Amino acid sequence: KQEVTQIPAALSVPEGENLVLNCSFTDSAIYNLQWFRQDPGKGLTSLLLIQSSQREQTSGRLNASLDKSSGRSTLYIAASQPGDSATYLCALHDRGSTLGRLYFGRGTQLTVWP
Amino acid sequence: SAVISQKPSRDICQRGTSLTIQCQVDSQVTMMFWYRQQPGQSLTLIATANQGSEATYESGFVIDKFPISRPNLTFSTLTVSNMSPEDSSIYLCSVRGVGEKLFFGSGTQLSVL
Q1: What is the pLDDT at residue B64?
Q2: Consecutive sets of 10 residues in chain B, 113 residues long: mean pLDDT of each?
Q3: Three-class SS of residue B84?
Q4: What is the pLDDT of residue B97?
Q5: Is B86:B66 a contact under the CB 8 Å cutoff?
Q6: Interface check A4 vs B, CB under 8 A
Q7: Is residue A98 predicted with pLDDT exceeding 70?
Q8: Cα separation, B61 vs A88, whole angstroms
Q9: Of A26, A28, A104, A113, whose CB count within 10 A is highest?
């Protein structure tokens, strides 16, 4: 069974810092990996999706990388802002499972203070 | 991206009662997915809802406790039956969109007293 771990569990930084959030997984036979943002008491917003054949994806100040061989993905946030404060979740589609069955980490709770 | 409307957004319920959560999508989708997020935990898939057939439940989840309806390609409901405080969670519906991204509704925050 796929296990997904996110480190750190929580992170508090001043505005303007560049951040790296880490995600590791135990089985490299993945279909794709998706990063989400979750605001308190809300649903999930999709940020980036990386196919298993890709190494990275970029959207604005966000860059996600994927290294299947080492079972790792990182989410890089440049020039952080208070509006980035949220919980960031990584989730992956396992090749042995139905598409739609995502394995989630517990998330990194990010606080960016002015 | 798919737009998903989920109702209710939150509810406080008494032990032993049932709550039905609705999920409406702005486009036709083959599969809809129901997830649960218990406090401090990661999301866990409850079941996959296919139109025209019975839902497929994940290990640890049963139809009697979480009956699901899927009457058409844009709508689904999840019922949490005979609730106990352990059912207090956020329940989310999800669909797969273009490019295989999964999109989620805004969630239903359920508290059981």
Answers
A1: 96
A2: 90 97 93 92 91 89 96 95 96 84 91 96
A3: coil
A4: 75
A5: no
A6: yes
A7: no
A8: 26
A9: A104
- Please give the structure tokens belonging to residue B13: 């319920």
A87 DSSP β-pair partners: A38, A109
Task: Tell me the shortest Cα–Cα distance from B5 to chain A, in angstroms.
Answer: 11
B43 with A91: Cβ contact below 8 A: yes
Task: Please indicate if any CB of chain B lies within 8 Å of the CB of A52.
Answer: no
The amino acid present at B100, given as its one-letter code, is: E
Q: Quote the CA–CA distance of A10 and A56 in Å, as a whole number.
A: 24
- By CB neighbour count within 10 A (0-12 exposed, 13-18 middle, 19+ buried), where does B82 fall? exposed
Best of A39, A44, A87 to disrupt the B interface by mutation (most B CBs within 10 Å)? A44
H helix or E strand, kind and range, residue A59: strand A56-59
Question: What does the pLDDT average to over A5-15?
Answer: 96
B109-to-A70, B16, B77 alpha-carbon distances in Å: 36, 17, 15
Q: How many CA atoms lie within 13 A of B27 on its CB side?
A: 10
- The pair of structure tokens assigned to A103 is 């394995």
